[in-house]
Structure formats: C-alpha cells, structure tokens
Amino acid sequence: MTFSADLGLAYPELILAIGALVLLVAGAFAPKAARAVGWGGVLVLAAAAFQAATGPLGRGFSGGIVADDASAFAQVAIFIASAIAIPLGQPWFERRGVHNFEFPVLIVLAALGMGMMVSAGDLISLYIGVELHSLALYVLAAMHRDNAKASEAGLKYFVLGALSSGLLLYGASLVYGFAGSTLFTDIAAAVQHGAHTGVLFGLVFLICGLAFKVSAAPFHMWTPDVYEGAPTPVVAFFAAAPKLAAMVLFARLLGQGFGGAVVQWQQVLVALGLISVAVGAFAGLAQSNLKRLWAYSSIANVGYAIIGLSSGTAEGVQSMLIFMVLYMVDVTGFFACLAALSRRGKAMESFQDMAGLFKEQPGIALAMTAFSLSALGLPPFSGFWAKYFVFKAALNAGLPVAAALGLVGSVVAAFYYLRLIKVMWFDAGEGATDKPPFEARAVAVGLALFSFPLVLGALVWIEPAAKKAAHAFGLA
After folding, report:
1. pLDDT(273) > 90
2. What pLDDT, in 10s, does the model give residues 346-362?
C-alpha cells in the first residue's frame, strides 16, 4: 500500500493525535477556557468514532496497523465511553477547586493509545498503544493533587504498571527471538502446528502483562487501592474503556498471532478467568467501601470475559465483546452515581453512607439498583445477557466446568449487590444529601435506562456487530 493509503487506515488515531495537540495548545494559551477545551475533546472523540465506523479497512504500515471490523467495533465503543468521561469528570474537579484543561487532553491521549491497541498488528504497535494509554491513566489517577489518596493511587498504579510493561517487553522479545518476527501473521505461521517451548514462554509473559492491564487475578493487586484513591470520575473512565481495549488486544494477540496454539493457551485462560471470578466474588464480601467493592466486582467481571475468550472460538470472542460493551455501561453508570452523591460536601462511598438513599434521592437509588441487579446478572438487565452469551460460548466449546464455576461465582457475588440494595431501600438514613449535579445525574439515569429496557433493542445491533467483529480474529 502507498503511504497515503496507510494514513487513511489510521485516520481515527490521527484525528485524536492532532486534536490532543490543538487542545493542549489552546488550553495553554487560554487556561480559563477549560470547559471549551473539554467540549472540544468531546467533538474530537465523536469525529474519531465516526471515522472508525465509516473509514476504509485493511492493513497498513507493513502490517503494524490493522483496520478491520473488530478494530472499528472496539474503537467506536471506546471513543464513546471516553467522550462521556469528559463532561462527567471536568465539573467534578471544578466543584473541588481543581480548574484544569489537562483532564480532557489526557482522556483524548488515553483514547489514542486504546485506539492503537485494538488495531495493533504486531508486537511493536501493541507495546506503543499499551504504554501511550497507560501513561495518560497514571496521570489521571493522581490528578487530584491535593488529595493524598489520589497521589498514592497514581504512584501505586505507575510502579506496578512499570512491572507489567517489563513483563510485556520480555515476552515480546522471547516471541520475536523464537518466531523470527513481530508481526502477528508471521507468528501465526510459526506456531501453525503448535508453539515452540521458547515461544510459549514468551506468550506466558505476554498474557501476564495483559492480565495486569485488565485486572485479572492474580495480577489484580493494584486495583482495589487505585479504585479507592483515584477521583471517582477517573475510576468510571478507566474501569470501562481501557478494559475493553485490553481485552480486544488479548483476543487479537491470541487469535491472529497464536490461533494455531489454542490447545496450549486455552487452559491458561480458563484458570485465569476462574481465579478472577473467585477472587472478585469472595474478596468483595469483606468490603465496606463501595469503590473497593466495585474494584473486586470488576475483577470478577473480567474473569467472565476471559472465560468467554478461553473458548478459543469466534463465538467465544463474540461473547467477550458483547460482555465488555455491556459491562462498560454498568460500571460507568455506577461510578456516575457515586460522583453525583455527597452529604455536606463529603463524598458518599460506603455502605453506611447509602443508608436510606431511596428516600433522599429516589432517581439515583433506582439507577444504582439497576446497575447492581445488572452486575448480579438478573434478567432482563444487560448483565444477564452479557453472562448468557459467555456461558453459552463456554458450553459450546466443551467447557461446562468453567461455565458452572462461573455461575457459582455469580451466586456468591449476589450477596454484596443485594446488600447494597437493602441498605438503600430499607435502612435508616444518615441525613439529607446534597443536590446531585446535573451532568452526573444525567449520565447515571441515561445509562440505567440503557441497562434496562433500552438494552433489549440495542442487542439487535450489538450482537451481529460483535459477531462480524469476532470473525476478524481468524478463530474457527
């Protein structure tokens, strides 16, 4: 392909890169126009999402960038989630006296990294995308600089993120050394009849590095502390879009790079998924802080997505994509509820704070109830359909034990979701809550309505789009 054709495939990334630079310069020269920079970021992300949905498909830059149905599906979802994060987060910071224009710029840069992740065609672009989005997330986690917990969260995330980067690099070097190429297509040819021992060692390190990015146990150690300490709107962002990006990268690496070694990596993923479900379900029982609770909930939910991916089939990848998109709605909505709630200027983040919430804020309480029931997997909420597709794919792939144990994990986790609902609806209140800000309440209620009933109509589009995207990974 010509250089201009290669650039055409990378238009979504170019829009984000140029947009971030323009917004950065605009914010530097007009720091008081932070809101304008924020809405500019929303427009940039919307333009990138439109380009991803309508742009050309193919391979560019000698196979380093892949624009296909999978990358288009993931980029549209990621850019929309990123766009929602800006109006949710910027007013939150302003109410706490943090007036900055860097927040939307960092969101756009993180989205750029995630866009590269889902369209990576080799190990080099994989690493560049992972690091670009990670560096932005480290800064976002510590953005509330006057808060000691936020600074601690950013430092922990950075230090442990450096460890995962080392695992990724070491695994990539082993794969390159034994397979002779960094391109996924060349690696697939090298492992067509089974992977060499050296390549398998490299793959294990790559899986460990990516497992850290998605908070899969036993690489989850950073998640509860970072979720508790980071600003609530920031948690809403990096609990959603980055997880989808990393899971799509997971699927692309395993499907396009190691599709011939499914038997050799399938059991590793099954174990990773079940450990994550168990850790998330049982450790969540002991939590009193809701941000830490949903950190463990995210660990368990990533486990379900990995179980779907471990099927090693196109149906399994489809189930993972559907699961992650629907999970993004629930987790973003729940943290939007937390961002909307305060009492006498103090954030409400514990079970005790939520006592009697239905009497004080019935709309927010109903939204949190919907998200809790959805995360539990109760029909007909979106979380039920997400788990339905995952368990169905696992059963069809001959993994009934994984599906059964995953279902047991859902039953265990139901305790803390139902406990939250009970506290909100039936316990005595702690006093009047502050008036919820419009933007956080709008995001929470809108996403709750998507969780049910709008999801029933949305699945008519999401399911075939995810199926089309899954076949791009080359699995049977």
Report:
1. yes
2. 888 888 888 888 888 88
Q: What is the pLDDT of residue 257?
A: 84
Q: Report cis status (omega within 30 of 0) of the bond before 231.
A: no
State both tokens at 159: 């230090």
pLDDT value at residue 1: 61
Residues in the chain: 476
Say how far apart CA 323 and CA 410 lie, in whole Å: 14
Q: pLDDT by residue (tens digit) across 184-237? A: 888 888 887 766 788 888 999 999 999 998 889 888 888 888 898 888 899 999
Name the nearest CA neighbour of 90 among 99, 82, 81.
99
Q: What pLDDT score does 194 carry?
A: 67
Tokens matching residue 280: 């998330």
Q: Does the reported pTM lie above 0.85?
A: yes
In the chain, the amino acid numbered 394 is A
**In this structure, are residues 443 and 92 in contact, taking their beta carbons and an 8 Å threshold?**
no
Q: Phi and psi for 429 in degrees, rounded to 5? A: -75, 165
C-alpha 76/C-alpha 114 separation (Å) is: 11
User: For residues 175 and 354, what is the distance between their CA atoms, to the nearest angstrom?
Assistant: 50
Identify the bridge partners of residue 122 per DSSP, sorted by sequence position: 183
* pLDDT higher than 90, residue 8: no
pLDDT value, residue 28? 87
Residue type, position 92, single letter: W
Query: What's the token pair of residue 464?
Result: 């075939």
Report the distance separating Cα 273 and Cα 453, nearest Å.
Answer: 29
CA distance 437 to 37: 20
